[in-house]
Amino acid sequence: MARITLSQLRHSYLPNPKGPDDYVLKDIDLDWHDGGAYALLGPSGCGKSTLLNIISGLLAPSEGRILFDGKDVTDLPPEQRNIAQVFQFPVIYDTMTVYNNLAFPLRNRGVDEAVVKDRVTKIAEMLDVTEMLRKPAAGLSPDNKQKISMGRGLVRDDVNVVMFDEPLTVIDPHLKWTLRSKLKELHQKVRATMIYVTHDQTEALTFADQVVVMEDGQIVQIGTPVELFERPTHTFVGHFIGSPGMNILPCNVQNGQALFEGHTVVLEGPIEAGTVDQGAGLTQIGIRPEFITFGATGVPATVRKVADIGRHSVVDTVVGETLIKVIVEGAAPVQGAATHLRFDPSKTRLYRDGWIATQALEAAE
Amino acid sequence: MTQPKMRLSILIPILYTLFLMLPIYWLVAMSFKTTGEILSGFSLFPQTWTFDNYRVIFTDPTWYWGYINSIIYVSLNTVISITVALPAAYAFSRYSFLGDKHLFFWLLTNRMAPAAVFALPFFQLYSAVELFDTHLAVALAHCLFNIPLAVWILEGFMGGVPKELDETAAVDGYSFPRFFMTIFLPSIKAGVGVAAFFCFMFSWVELLLAKTLTAVAAKPIAATMTKTASSAGYELGLLAAAGTLTIIPGAIVIYFVRNYIAKGFALGRV
Amino acid sequence: MKKTYQKAWFLVLPVLLLVAFNALIPMMTVVNYSVQETFGNNLFFWEGLGWFEKLLNSDRFHAALGRQFMFTGLILVIEVPLGIAIALAMPRQGIWVPFFLVTMALPMLIPWNVVGAMWNIFTLPDIGLLGYFMNHTLGIDYNMTQDPFAAWATIITMDVWHWTSLVVLLSYAGLVSIPDAYYQAAKIDGASKWAVFRYIQLPKMKQVLTIAILLRFMDSFNIYTEIFVLTGGGPGNSTTLLSIDLVKIALGQFDLGPAAAMSLIYFAITLLISWLFYTLMTKDDVK
Q1: Cβ–Cβ < 8 Å for C126, B41
Q2: Which of C86, C170, C266 has its CB closest to that of B114?
Q3: In sequence order, what are the beta bridge partners of A314?
Q4: Which of A148, C210, C217, C236 has the fewest CB atoms within 10 Å, i.e. the most exposed one?
């Protein structure tokens, strides 16, 4: 097991990258602790799979270093990095039995057959595949195949990190749950560093202790699932995580106050000075639908649509031209009603050019 | 990451294609040499270029009709083979019916029949039905091995089209012929192309049956060539020119299917 | 599961009629000849299984059959591994790929008699590229119209030239269908090059290789035109393979009875071996 450090990684698939647009990864710095469960979350094409392949050694980065426990492994091929990877589509060796599949990585390394047997038996038990060890691997269902490819990674005791590249893509929905909890359970048992790449926020938030959100080749936020939800540091994170995502409202800043449609909105704390000058850049207010309530006072709004989705309702309201979603538990206002919206000040933030520009009160103190 | 290794191993296919080109080069080079130069000894390149050999072929009707005859029966065979193979392949890929497995296997066994076995009986059969020395005779005879092949290839490609497509079309109110022509056929057009390619190929390269079933009117170019080789003795330049010209239709056909070659040769079964 | 639908027979009917016309009637003719003796003038006498008996005991048939097995065996032993090796060495993508594929397909589209004629011109001792090179540059005495060994080497080389590409193209089609993840997983699992071939590439190529081997077997076992044009079966009878012998008997000597009996035995052997190959290669398929 190992600590993983990525230092100033940049990658381009072009031979002579010119501007930043030519890079699929733009300056990645990361530090992952030994034995942690991490997720790389982002939409398709954000560079997360590229990053994964760079860590596993299938791809050499254009610039930057990768360190395992402080040791530079940037130039090492995958087989010398002692990593394991589970791919999107289950990779199994069709002509072998399940047992031989699990034993394959050990036998390739010349491990003693008695040790192989011991390890394979142990891992098979952990994965609940003991009764199929003698079966040919080709006939298994996709979820069992995925378990076997996971097992091939875990069977080695020298693995630095186990990586998952959207491993649940081909799994039936009702089995996704089982496999996901199996993963979590495995992590607790073996305590290996695990990196889970996905575009599915539920998968990322349930699996990981810490989630790295990526967009357009950059890391936009690193944090626990709660942090990502409560205080997104970038409008992308607010929008990408949560269902529905964070409301992003256009606003003006005057005299340190945020004005939305002419109404002053109270923020979580003071606005940081802009880098160029006060008021420079595009400013927006971010507030999650969960933190807005209806009331007699506040910003006047009209209810346009109410969607009851079980435990709560999502209410679409409009203020001027702007659509604001509100989540209410219990009774929702009727369609067409005029109402007022109240924003929870401790959860209301100002973003400048996408990045958070308010200081939280406790941080300011 | 595997870049340096790839550079070295690419030598193998390069050497192999060079080996493939050598005899073809020699044929083409020969076709541009004068008879005098050929008989006077070895020369790597034609010393004096001549188009006389080609001029003979393009002006002598027995020569150029050979090409026309070949192209007529090959095209005819390709059209017949594909037309009858399409519904049959559909039946094999979508339905089970009495004796389907045996029938399919029996069809394939005809692909294994040595042409030499059939030469004489074919001559008698097609004489009896008064088709001897017609393009249709050769086209029909070549169906013996091309139809089974076309059915087999098309069945492979059709197997890759989900059955739900048929059902959806039926629900949408398409009649079967309209569904087949406007929806199904376009979705296997690569397969039709590959099957047509193979029919063309095997009909174009076959000589034994084509020669046996023709005398004058439908004589294939290949037969014209063997006559020249035996009767006129050493007209090597002329023979080489005629040979060179038979390579061209094949090259044109390959050019059209170049993007399907790899998958095509797997007959839709990868 | 496929739907049971007996009317599907109507869809198969045109194929059935055409192939039956071409296969059954001539086959009946052959069977008919095989049990009769004729002295011309359309007079036939019942011969029973006499021709079969004579043929199966004839040295000439044994020799032709032996040569045929030797030829087909050599072809398979050379072309299959060579074809796989070339397919493995081919780049997966890049500007070279279409060039290779088109060039490799070309020999297969040349009429078979032209292939024979081309190799004849290529190997002429004094004015052929190969013949001249062998005799005058390397100093090896090479003349396939006189030396049986040279004749054999030439027909084998010609067939390798003509058909190895079929194995290459089929294997290559199998190889490019393997997703990258398999190679990456194998790398991570520390698999050697041999293990990658044995456990990933070979299993994925198996289906297309079955097709390749079957086609190569059938076509090499039935080969006629190329060799007839190149060597005419000589020198002596050294390259008289089954088909060449059959045509000699049937069209050359007009011995219809023996030729027909030989045709049937020939066809039966082809069928039997094809079936054996097919059964062996697909017996451990997981359904």
Answers
A1: yes
A2: C266
A3: A307, A327
A4: C236
**CATH of the structural domain B63-265, one choice from 1.10.10.10, 1.10.3720.10, 3.40.50.720, 1.10.760.10:** 1.10.3720.10
Total beta-carbon pairs less than 8 A apart between chain B and chain C: 279
Measured distance CA(C189)–CA(C205) in Å, rounded: 21
Burial B146-161 (b: 16+ CB within 10 A, else e): bbbbbbbbbbbbbbeb
Average pLDDT over residues B46-67: 84
Contacts 24+ apart (CB under 8 A), C56-59: C56/C265
Nearest to B119 among C118, C173, C247 (CB): C247
Contact C5 B97 (CB under 8 A): yes
pLDDT tens column, C74-120: 999 999 999 999 999 988 877 888 888 888 989 998 988 889 888 98
* Residue B3 touches chain A, beta carbons under 8 Å: no
Q: Is the pLDDT of residue C286 over 50?
A: no
Where would I find the H helices in chain A? 48-56, 98-108, 113-127, 142-154, 173-190, 201-207, 225-230, 235-240, 361-364
User: Which chain B positions have a beta carbon within 8 Å of A60's beta carbon?
Assistant: 1
ipTM of model: 0.85
Tell me whether C85 touches chain B (CB under 8 Å). yes
Q: Is residue C9 part of a domain?
A: no
DSSP H/E element including A223: strand A218-223
Distance from CA of A60 to the nearest CA of B (A): 8
Rounded to a whole number of angstroms, the distance from the CA of A80 to the nearest CA of chain B is 14
Q: Residues A145-169, buried b or exposed e (16+ Cβ, 10 A)? A: bbbbbbbbbbbbeebbbbbbbbbbb
pLDDT digit string (tens) for A207-263?
888 899 988 888 888 989 888 888 899 999 988 888 888 999 888 888 778 888 888
Domain membership of residue C213 (yes or no) is yes
Residue C63 touches chain B, beta carbons under 8 Å:
no
pTM recorded for the entire structure: 0.80
Q: Calculate helix-pair angle for C202-221, C148-176, nearest 10 degrees.
A: 140
In this prediction, residues B30-36 reach a mean pLDDT of: 83
